[in-house]
Fold this sequence. Notes:
It is built from 12 helices and 10 strands. Helix 2 (58-69) packs across helix 9 and helix 7 (159-171) packs across helix 11 (247-259). The chain is an alpha/beta fold. The protein has helices at residues 23-40, 58-69, 84-101, 110-114, 118-125, 129-147, 159-171, 175-180, 203-213, 229-243, 247-259, 299-307, and strands spanning 12-14, 19-21, 49-54, 73-80, 105-109, 152-154, 184-185, 194-195, 284-285, 292-293. The radius of gyration is 20 Å and the shape is globular. It has a single domain, classed as HUPs (Rossmann fold, 3-Layer(aba) Sandwich).
Amino acid sequence: MKCRVCREPAVIDIRRHNANFCVEHFLRLCRDQTAKAIEEFSMLSPGDKVLVAVSGGKDSLALWDLLVELGYEAHGLYIGLGIGGYSDRSGAMVRDFAQARGLELTQIDLRADYDTDVPTAAKATRRVPCSACGLSKRHLFDRAALDGGYDAVATGHNLDDEAAVLFGNTLRWQTEYLARQMPVLEARAGFPRKVKPLVRLGEREMAAYCVLRGIDYIVEECPMAVGNKHLGYKEALNEIEARSPGSKHDFYFGYLARASHRFADAAPGVSSGTPGDTDSASVGRCERCGSPSTSNTCAFCRLIEASAGAQPVTITEKGRLK
Ligand code: Q46
Ligand code: ZN
Ligand code: ZN
Protein backbone atom coordinates (compact mmCIF):
# COMPACT_ATOMS: atom_id res chain seq x y z
CA MET A 1 0.00 0.00 0.00
CA LYS A 2 1.68 3.19 -1.20
CA CYS A 3 0.84 6.85 -0.70
CA ARG A 4 -0.94 8.30 -3.72
CA VAL A 5 1.13 11.48 -3.49
CA CYS A 6 4.70 10.38 -2.69
CA ARG A 7 4.69 6.57 -3.19
CA GLU A 8 6.13 6.05 0.32
CA PRO A 9 4.44 3.41 2.55
CA ALA A 10 0.84 4.43 3.34
CA VAL A 11 -0.84 4.34 6.79
CA ILE A 12 -4.47 4.73 5.73
CA ASP A 13 -6.67 3.86 2.78
CA ILE A 14 -9.67 6.00 1.93
CA ARG A 15 -11.91 3.96 -0.30
CA ARG A 16 -14.19 6.76 -1.39
CA HIS A 17 -11.11 8.56 -2.76
CA ASN A 18 -9.81 5.22 -4.04
CA ALA A 19 -6.42 6.15 -2.57
CA ASN A 20 -3.90 5.51 0.23
CA PHE A 21 -1.89 8.11 2.12
CA CYS A 22 1.27 8.35 4.24
CA VAL A 23 1.12 10.30 7.52
CA GLU A 24 2.24 13.59 6.05
CA HIS A 25 -0.09 13.48 3.08
CA PHE A 26 -3.04 12.21 5.10
CA LEU A 27 -2.72 15.13 7.52
CA ARG A 28 -2.43 17.47 4.56
CA LEU A 29 -5.56 15.92 3.04
CA CYS A 30 -7.48 16.60 6.28
CA ARG A 31 -6.37 20.24 6.27
CA ASP A 32 -7.14 20.60 2.57
CA GLN A 33 -10.59 19.03 2.87
CA THR A 34 -11.41 21.30 5.82
CA ALA A 35 -10.20 24.37 3.92
CA LYS A 36 -12.16 23.25 0.86
CA ALA A 37 -15.40 22.89 2.84
CA ILE A 38 -14.87 26.31 4.42
CA GLU A 39 -14.34 27.89 1.02
CA GLU A 40 -16.98 25.94 -0.89
CA PHE A 41 -19.74 26.98 1.50
CA SER A 42 -18.27 30.40 2.46
CA MET A 43 -18.18 29.33 6.10
CA LEU A 44 -15.45 31.65 7.37
CA SER A 45 -13.25 34.50 6.23
CA PRO A 46 -9.49 34.58 6.86
CA GLY A 47 -8.67 35.63 10.42
CA ASP A 48 -12.22 35.04 11.72
CA LYS A 49 -12.66 34.55 15.45
CA VAL A 50 -14.34 31.18 15.87
CA LEU A 51 -15.89 29.53 18.91
CA VAL A 52 -15.44 25.75 18.68
CA ALA A 53 -18.03 23.63 20.47
CA VAL A 54 -15.82 21.01 22.09
CA SER A 55 -17.12 17.83 23.71
CA GLY A 56 -13.86 15.92 24.25
CA GLY A 57 -14.65 13.58 21.35
CA LYS A 58 -12.43 13.08 18.30
CA ASP A 59 -14.35 15.33 15.94
CA SER A 60 -14.49 18.48 18.01
CA LEU A 61 -10.87 18.25 19.18
CA ALA A 62 -9.67 17.53 15.63
CA LEU A 63 -11.73 20.47 14.39
CA TRP A 64 -10.18 22.81 16.96
CA ASP A 65 -6.71 21.61 15.98
CA LEU A 66 -7.44 21.99 12.25
CA LEU A 67 -8.87 25.50 12.58
CA VAL A 68 -5.80 26.62 14.54
CA GLU A 69 -3.58 25.00 11.89
CA LEU A 70 -5.50 26.86 9.18
CA GLY A 71 -4.82 30.17 10.92
CA TYR A 72 -8.15 30.97 12.55
CA GLU A 73 -8.42 32.48 16.01
CA ALA A 74 -10.20 29.44 17.40
CA HIS A 75 -11.26 29.29 21.05
CA GLY A 76 -13.01 26.34 22.69
CA LEU A 77 -16.21 26.22 24.68
CA TYR A 78 -16.90 23.16 26.78
CA ILE A 79 -20.19 22.60 28.57
CA GLY A 80 -20.20 20.29 31.58
CA LEU A 81 -23.54 18.52 31.16
CA GLY A 82 -23.39 16.54 34.40
CA ILE A 83 -23.79 13.16 32.69
CA GLY A 84 -21.99 11.15 35.36
CA GLY A 85 -18.44 9.90 34.83
CA TYR A 86 -18.74 10.51 31.07
CA SER A 87 -18.84 14.27 31.63
CA ASP A 88 -15.99 14.15 34.17
CA ARG A 89 -13.76 12.27 31.75
CA SER A 90 -14.64 14.30 28.66
CA GLY A 91 -14.07 17.58 30.53
CA ALA A 92 -10.61 16.39 31.58
CA MET A 93 -9.74 15.52 27.95
CA VAL A 94 -10.71 18.99 26.76
CA ARG A 95 -8.77 20.76 29.52
CA ASP A 96 -5.66 18.67 28.83
CA PHE A 97 -5.89 19.38 25.10
CA ALA A 98 -6.25 23.14 25.59
CA GLN A 99 -3.55 23.34 28.24
CA ALA A 100 -0.99 21.33 26.26
CA ARG A 101 -1.43 23.66 23.27
CA GLY A 102 -1.92 26.93 25.14
CA LEU A 103 -5.39 27.44 23.62
CA GLU A 104 -8.15 29.57 25.10
CA LEU A 105 -10.95 27.49 26.62
CA THR A 106 -14.17 28.70 28.23
CA GLN A 107 -16.04 26.26 30.45
CA ILE A 108 -19.65 26.35 31.55
CA ASP A 109 -20.84 23.81 34.07
CA LEU A 110 -24.57 23.20 34.37
CA ARG A 111 -24.26 22.04 37.99
CA ALA A 112 -21.92 24.79 39.19
CA ASP A 113 -23.44 27.61 37.15
CA TYR A 114 -27.15 26.70 37.03
CA ASP A 115 -27.58 24.21 39.89
CA THR A 116 -28.84 21.46 37.58
CA ASP A 117 -27.58 18.93 35.04
CA VAL A 118 -28.94 17.12 31.99
CA PRO A 119 -30.43 14.06 33.77
CA THR A 120 -32.12 16.22 36.43
CA ALA A 121 -33.42 18.77 33.92
CA ALA A 122 -34.71 15.97 31.67
CA LYS A 123 -36.69 14.39 34.48
CA ALA A 124 -38.04 17.69 35.82
CA THR A 125 -39.30 18.77 32.39
CA ARG A 126 -40.29 15.27 31.18
CA ARG A 127 -38.04 15.65 28.17
CA VAL A 128 -35.84 12.90 26.84
CA PRO A 129 -32.25 13.62 27.99
CA CYS A 130 -30.97 14.41 24.49
CA SER A 131 -33.69 17.03 24.08
CA ALA A 132 -32.80 18.76 27.38
CA CYS A 133 -29.15 18.46 26.45
CA GLY A 134 -29.49 19.80 22.90
CA LEU A 135 -31.62 22.71 24.05
CA SER A 136 -29.05 23.65 26.73
CA LYS A 137 -26.09 23.35 24.39
CA ARG A 138 -27.69 25.42 21.64
CA HIS A 139 -28.68 28.15 24.08
CA LEU A 140 -25.31 28.34 25.84
CA PHE A 141 -23.26 28.21 22.62
CA ASP A 142 -25.40 30.93 21.02
CA ARG A 143 -25.09 33.18 24.06
CA ALA A 144 -21.36 32.66 24.47
CA ALA A 145 -20.73 33.35 20.77
CA LEU A 146 -22.77 36.55 20.75
CA ASP A 147 -21.43 37.81 24.09
CA GLY A 148 -17.84 37.01 23.10
CA GLY A 149 -18.09 38.74 19.70
CA TYR A 150 -17.30 35.57 17.72
CA ASP A 151 -17.80 35.46 13.96
CA ALA A 152 -19.15 31.91 14.10
CA VAL A 153 -19.74 28.80 16.18
CA ALA A 154 -18.04 25.74 14.64
CA THR A 155 -19.19 22.20 15.39
CA GLY A 156 -17.45 18.90 14.64
CA HIS A 157 -20.21 17.26 12.59
CA ASN A 158 -18.48 15.02 10.05
CA LEU A 159 -19.70 13.41 6.83
CA ASP A 160 -20.96 10.30 8.66
CA ASP A 161 -22.98 12.44 11.09
CA GLU A 162 -24.50 14.58 8.37
CA ALA A 163 -25.31 11.64 6.11
CA ALA A 164 -26.97 9.81 9.04
CA VAL A 165 -29.04 12.86 10.02
CA LEU A 166 -30.03 13.39 6.38
CA PHE A 167 -31.00 9.73 6.14
CA GLY A 168 -33.23 10.02 9.22
CA ASN A 169 -34.80 13.29 8.08
CA THR A 170 -35.45 11.86 4.62
CA LEU A 171 -36.93 8.63 5.94
CA ARG A 172 -39.58 10.67 7.68
CA TRP A 173 -39.62 13.64 5.30
CA GLN A 174 -39.00 16.07 8.12
CA THR A 175 -38.89 19.07 5.83
CA GLU A 176 -38.13 21.68 8.48
CA TYR A 177 -35.12 19.69 9.66
CA LEU A 178 -34.06 19.14 6.05
CA ALA A 179 -34.06 22.91 5.57
CA ARG A 180 -31.83 23.38 8.60
CA GLN A 181 -29.38 20.69 7.60
CA MET A 182 -26.97 22.96 5.79
CA PRO A 183 -23.24 23.18 6.48
CA VAL A 184 -23.73 26.89 7.22
CA LEU A 185 -26.55 28.62 9.05
CA GLU A 186 -26.32 32.36 8.66
CA ALA A 187 -26.45 34.66 11.68
CA ARG A 188 -29.85 36.08 12.52
CA ALA A 189 -30.82 38.53 15.23
CA GLY A 190 -30.04 36.72 18.48
CA PHE A 191 -28.35 33.77 16.75
CA PRO A 192 -24.71 33.50 15.69
CA ARG A 193 -23.49 32.05 12.41
CA LYS A 194 -23.02 28.25 12.62
CA VAL A 195 -20.61 26.25 10.52
CA LYS A 196 -19.62 22.58 10.08
CA PRO A 197 -16.13 22.55 8.55
CA LEU A 198 -15.66 18.74 8.80
CA VAL A 199 -18.44 17.75 6.39
CA ARG A 200 -15.93 16.52 3.81
CA LEU A 201 -14.23 14.14 6.28
CA GLY A 202 -15.48 10.82 7.64
CA GLU A 203 -15.53 9.42 11.15
CA ARG A 204 -12.68 7.00 10.49
CA GLU A 205 -10.52 9.81 9.12
CA MET A 206 -11.14 11.95 12.20
CA ALA A 207 -10.11 9.11 14.51
CA ALA A 208 -6.95 8.57 12.43
CA TYR A 209 -6.24 12.30 12.42
CA CYS A 210 -6.37 12.39 16.24
CA VAL A 211 -4.11 9.37 16.60
CA LEU A 212 -1.55 10.75 14.14
CA ARG A 213 -1.62 14.22 15.73
CA GLY A 214 -1.29 12.80 19.26
CA ILE A 215 -4.73 14.06 20.34
CA ASP A 216 -6.22 12.13 23.26
CA TYR A 217 -10.00 12.03 22.98
CA ILE A 218 -12.84 10.34 24.80
CA VAL A 219 -13.63 7.10 22.98
CA GLU A 220 -16.72 6.07 24.97
CA GLU A 221 -20.12 7.25 23.74
CA CYS A 222 -22.36 9.35 25.94
CA PRO A 223 -24.44 6.80 27.93
CA MET A 224 -27.58 8.62 26.78
CA ALA A 225 -26.78 7.73 23.16
CA VAL A 226 -27.55 4.05 23.81
CA GLY A 227 -30.30 2.99 21.42
CA ASN A 228 -30.10 6.36 19.65
CA LYS A 229 -31.72 6.18 16.20
CA HIS A 230 -28.75 7.88 14.58
CA LEU A 231 -26.47 5.02 15.53
CA GLY A 232 -28.81 2.71 13.60
CA TYR A 233 -28.78 5.02 10.57
CA LYS A 234 -24.99 5.12 10.70
CA GLU A 235 -24.77 1.34 10.74
CA ALA A 236 -27.14 1.08 7.78
CA LEU A 237 -25.12 3.64 5.81
CA ASN A 238 -21.87 1.88 6.71
CA GLU A 239 -23.20 -1.28 5.10
CA ILE A 240 -24.13 0.58 1.95
CA GLU A 241 -20.77 2.38 1.92
CA ALA A 242 -18.87 -0.92 2.28
CA ARG A 243 -20.54 -2.23 -0.86
CA SER A 244 -20.45 1.03 -2.73
CA PRO A 245 -17.71 3.42 -1.55
CA GLY A 246 -18.60 7.07 -1.97
CA SER A 247 -22.33 6.56 -1.31
CA LYS A 248 -22.39 8.70 1.84
CA HIS A 249 -20.56 11.50 0.09
CA ASP A 250 -22.88 11.36 -2.94
CA PHE A 251 -25.99 11.17 -0.76
CA TYR A 252 -25.07 14.22 1.32
CA PHE A 253 -23.40 16.43 -1.29
CA GLY A 254 -25.99 15.44 -3.89
CA TYR A 255 -28.67 16.63 -1.47
CA LEU A 256 -26.90 19.94 -0.93
CA ALA A 257 -26.35 20.54 -4.64
CA ARG A 258 -29.58 19.27 -6.12
CA ALA A 259 -32.34 19.01 -3.55
CA SER A 260 -31.75 21.26 -0.50
CA HIS A 261 -33.15 24.38 -2.23
CA ARG A 262 -36.50 22.64 -2.50
CA PHE A 263 -36.83 22.67 1.29
CA ALA A 264 -35.51 26.19 1.89
CA ASP A 265 -38.96 27.58 2.71
CA ALA A 266 -39.73 24.90 5.29
CA ALA A 267 -37.71 26.61 8.05
CA PRO A 268 -38.32 30.36 8.08
CA GLY A 269 -35.25 32.53 8.54
CA VAL A 270 -32.74 29.82 7.75
CA SER A 271 -32.08 29.91 4.09
CA SER A 272 -31.60 33.33 2.62
CA GLY A 273 -28.67 34.65 4.63
CA THR A 274 -29.63 38.14 3.48
CA PRO A 275 -29.18 40.66 6.31
CA GLY A 276 -32.55 41.89 7.44
CA ASP A 277 -34.35 39.09 5.64
CA THR A 278 -35.25 37.12 8.73
CA ASP A 279 -38.28 36.20 10.69
CA SER A 280 -36.62 37.29 13.90
CA ALA A 281 -38.34 40.67 13.94
CA SER A 282 -41.55 38.82 14.74
CA VAL A 283 -39.91 36.82 17.54
CA GLY A 284 -39.88 38.35 21.00
CA ARG A 285 -37.24 38.24 23.70
CA CYS A 286 -37.01 36.13 26.83
CA GLU A 287 -37.66 38.41 29.77
CA ARG A 288 -35.02 36.64 31.85
CA CYS A 289 -32.04 36.28 29.53
CA GLY A 290 -32.92 38.39 26.46
CA SER A 291 -32.56 35.50 24.01
CA PRO A 292 -34.99 35.21 21.08
CA SER A 293 -38.14 33.48 22.27
CA THR A 294 -41.71 33.05 21.12
CA SER A 295 -42.94 33.12 24.72
CA ASN A 296 -42.15 35.43 27.66
CA THR A 297 -39.57 33.02 29.03
CA CYS A 298 -37.33 31.00 26.70
CA ALA A 299 -37.19 27.20 26.81
CA PHE A 300 -33.75 27.20 28.45
CA CYS A 301 -34.80 29.55 31.27
CA ARG A 302 -37.91 27.39 31.82
CA LEU A 303 -35.74 24.28 31.93
CA ILE A 304 -33.50 25.86 34.57
CA GLU A 305 -36.44 27.18 36.55
CA ALA A 306 -38.07 23.74 36.62
CA SER A 307 -34.95 21.86 37.68
CA ALA A 308 -32.56 24.15 39.58
CA GLY A 309 -32.11 22.85 43.09
CA ALA A 310 -34.16 19.69 42.43
CA GLN A 311 -32.99 16.39 43.88
CA PRO A 312 -30.17 15.37 41.49
CA VAL A 313 -31.04 12.45 39.21
CA THR A 314 -28.30 9.94 38.45
CA ILE A 315 -27.95 7.68 35.45
CA THR A 316 -27.39 3.96 35.28
CA GLU A 317 -24.70 2.29 33.17
CA LYS A 318 -27.39 1.59 30.57
CA GLY A 319 -28.18 5.28 30.30
CA ARG A 320 -31.45 5.15 32.27
CA LEU A 321 -32.41 7.90 34.73
CA LYS A 322 -32.93 6.90 38.34
S1 Q46 B 1 -27.35 15.02 23.09
FE1 Q46 B 1 -27.78 13.10 24.06
FE2 Q46 B 1 -25.47 13.84 22.96
FE3 Q46 B 1 -26.36 15.18 25.07
S2 Q46 B 1 -27.34 13.54 26.20
FE4 Q46 B 1 -25.46 12.67 25.36
S3 Q46 B 1 -26.14 11.72 23.44
S4 Q46 B 1 -24.32 14.44 24.78
S5 Q46 B 1 -24.51 14.72 21.17
ZN1 ZN C 1 2.88 10.64 1.02
ZN1 ZN D 1 -34.16 32.90 28.64
